UniProtKB/TrEMBL annotation:
Molybdate binds at T62, I170. Gene3D superfamilies: Periplasmic binding protein-like II (3.40.190.10). The complex is composed of two ATP-binding proteins (ModC), two transmembrane proteins (ModB) and a solute-binding protein (ModA). This is Molybdenum ABC transporter, periplasmic molybdate-binding protein. It comes from the Bacteria. Belongs to the bacterial solute-binding protein ModA family. It comes from Acidovorax ebreus (strain TPSY) (Diaphorobacter sp. (strain TPSY)). Keywords: Metal-binding, Molybdenum, Signal. One of its GO terms (molecular function) is molybdate ion binding.
Length: 253
């Protein structure tokens, strides 16, 4: 009988220890650029499994997220599609500039769902008989701006402009191309690539010299300061597990 209280105390201690991570686990609301949807879904699942913290994800255009954040939206972290928006957020006191870092450098791709339609040099822009091309709104989406810079560099902006179907963000732009409503689309490489391979269709990966770098920065927002889950996520994004996922979707660093 004398051993029973000891065993009881021991089991109670073990049970408490097992529950400790869950008791300290937190949650952070994350605004994620639409181009980073697939990799971030994978990273968030790994993050929760490895740390116990949960990242609640919202996807959309960086420009729209800025407007929402400026109007008090309760996001704790922003994963932007550019570096200018997090810089602006830091300047305006909407986020902690000391936490800002580049989590990925995006790659732009001209893509068609149809195999063999887009050639390896992107000459289909000059020679194809296509009627529409999907491009994200360059005022809201950095990938849309990069697409227009590419067309300018090729001397095709004026020729192509009347055939542009504008997506609100890069996610909607991809849907236009994937549905066939537009036979061509300038989209993020991450949307059509997985594990280093093109999932379907045909593509021209736009050389990085054709547009300004798509440097994608993360920042802890005002609502996320002091939130352990926000801090843990920022640290996790710098780790090798997250970076392996990011690389698999065609991003650089």
């Amino acid at each position: 009988m004398s051993g029973f209280p000891v065993r009881s105390i021991l089991w109670s201690a073990l049970a408490a220890a097992a529950l400790l991570p869950a008791a300290h686990a937190g949650e952070v609301s994350v605004a994620v650029a639409a181009n980073f949807t697939a990799p971030m879904q994978r990273i968030a699942a790994q993050f929760e499994q490895d740390t116990g913290h949960k990242a609640v994800l919202s996807f959309g255009a960086t420009g729209k997220f800025y407007a929402q954040i400026a109007n008090g939206a309760p996001f704790g972290v922003l994963l932007a599609a550019d570096d200018a928006t997090p810089q602006k957020i830091a300047r305006e006191g909407l986020g902690n500039g000391a936490t800002r870092f580049t989590y990925a450098i995006g790659r732009l791709v001209l893509w068609s769902k149809q195999p063999g339609y887009v050639d390896a040099e992107g000459q289909v822009l000059r020679t194809g008989d296509w009627k529409h091309i999907a491009i994200a709104n360059p005022k809201l989406a950095p990938y849309g701006l990069a697409a227009m810079q590419t067309l300018d560099k090729l001397g095709l902006a004026a020729q192509v402009q009347p055939r542009v179907v504008t997506g609100e963000n890069i996610g909607q732009t991809y849907q236009f191309a994937a549905s066939g409503n537009a036979p061509l689309g300038f989209v993020a490489l991450s949307q059509v690539m997985e594990n280093g391979q093109l999932r379907e269709g045909s593509a021209w990966v736009v050389p990085a010299t054709m547009h300004a770098p798509i440097r994608q920065d993360a920042i802890v927002l005002q609502r996320g300061q002091g939130n352990p889950a926000a801090d843990a996520l920022m640290q996790y994004l710098r780790g090798e597990k997250a970076r392996a996922v990011i690389r698999a979707y065609g991003y650089d660093f």
